[in-house]
Design goal:
five-stranded mixed β-sheet; six-stranded mixed β-sheet; alpha/beta; Aminopeptidase; Immunoglobulin-like; 2 domains
Length: about 400
């Protein structure tokens, strides 16, 4: 039985969810191929996604302008057609079955350098997706791997298929729902700059501009608030869930005791803050109650913990994916970044949701020059363009 990501992450029916995931836990059947797709990430980086029914055990090897993904105890499927995005390094993908091992051979348009471990991740199942092995290629081409030293495997039984190009999922806007949250509002002005600029005013202006931009690009967008009203943090997260959002973007402006501090920063939800500053910011944004999952109290504590953990992990992975892409988009637009990591983690109440999302601090109102920038239409439009591009580059299907 297939579940949409919305059904899984929003925990609508936990009796059905238990029934849906039980076979995954109960049986240790051989792995099988589900799908193969490619995509073009921010900065022109090629991405290869191999989806399998169980967690993949894999190794990589290299041929002449080839990347070979070796999957142990895995059965291929000749009817699986690779969805090839245009503009990537991958020209075609073939399957080669060698006993219980499956090779996914990606033929490339150029040489590549060895793919480092930090460019590879295995994502847990969510919604319509099973386990996914995600491989990001080095940007551009490199000197390449010597074929004489690369580990290659001679195979006998082959299942080769030439694939037809398909549009990248990252560029598909149809039916994607984005909720934009303008922080603070009403009786809560947020931080206030030395010149009197209120955070609630700046972020509402940017939120409206962003909605207009995304609407024009074909997304279906909603604002948690379109006027100067006060909303509780839980109400904002709940709003995104009720709209069945694919992505939640919360906009804020920062303040710091040091008037010299400036630049944007991006945060995702974590029970443990990535640094002291992130924790202080989360505290100031009134982060509070721990994520809880309602609706399945009839199940044992172990099952509740397992399902809650699965849900949170899926949301965290998707949120991290978006946040990193957004940071790259802001950097590419030459928007100044706050010193330190581009993406940080903290227990923000507004992000406590079953919807993937990030909190973006657009800049520092406590910095005199940046306060002026944040008030200007030109800089707000620059921010909006960068965020809109990050949404367009985000792979909603990965």
């Amino acid at each position: 039985m297939k579940w949409t990501r919305r059904q899984l992450l929003k925990t609508v029916s936990f009796s059905a969810l238990v029934a849906g995931i039980a076979p995954r836990v109960a049986f240790a059947a051989p792995n099988s191929l589900r799908s193969i797709r490619t995509g073009l990430q921010t900065g022109g980086k090629t991405r290869l996604v191999v989806e399998t029914s169980s967690r993949p055990s894999y190794t990589l090897s290299y041929g002449d302008k080839q990347l070979i993904v070796n999957l142990s105890n895995t059965t291929g499927k000749s009817d699986v057609q690779t969805k090839l995005a245009s503009g990537t390094l991958i020209k075609r993908v073939t399957q080669i079955q060698d006993g219980t091992k499956l090779q996914i051979v990606a033929t490339l348009s150029g040489l590549i350098d060895a793919i480092e471990k930090n460019q590879i991740m295995v994502l847990e199942p969510n919604g319509d997706n099973d386990y996914r092995l995600v491989i990001d290629f080095p940007e551009g081409t490199g000197r390449g791997i010597s074929v004489s030293t690369a580990a290659t495997t001679t195979t006998t039984a082959k299942m080769a298929k030439t694939e037809a190009p398909a549009k990248s999922a990252a560029n598909t806007t149809k039916s994607r729902i984005i909720v934009i949250d303008a922080g603070h509002g009403g009786k809560d002005p947020g931080c206030i700059g030395k010149g009197g600029t209120q955070e609630k005013t700046v972020v509402l202006s940017v939120a409206k501009k962003l909605k207009k931009k995304l609407d024009a690009n074909g997304y279906k967008t909603y604002l948690t608030r379109s006027t100067d009203v006060y909303l509780k943090l839980g109400e904002r997260a709940e709003f995104a869930e009720k709209k069945h959002a694919d992505l939640f973007i919360s906009l804020h402006a920062n303040a710091n005791p040091s008037r010299d501090m400036k630049g944007f920063s991006i945060y995702t939800l974590s029970e443990k803050a990535s640094d002291e500053e992130a924790q202080k910011l989360a505290d100031s944004e009134n982060a509070a109650d721990k994520i809880d999952v309602d609706g399945f109290e009839q199940f044992s504590k172990d099952i509740r913990v397992a399902l809650s953990s699965l849900q949170q992990r899926a949301v965290a992975e998707l949120s991290e994916e978006y946040a990193n892409g957004c940071a790259k988009s802001m950097n590419k637009a030459s928007i100044e970044q706050q010193k330190g990591p581009s993406v940080r983690h903290a227990p923000f109440a507004v992000l406590r949701s079953t919807v993937p999302g990030a909190l973006i601090e657009l800049g520092h109102l406590s910095n005199k020059s940046e306060e002026k920038l944040l008030k200007s239409d030109a800089h707000q439009n620059k921010l909006v363009d960068a965020i809109a591009k990050s949404v367009h580059s985000y792979d909603f299907d990965v």
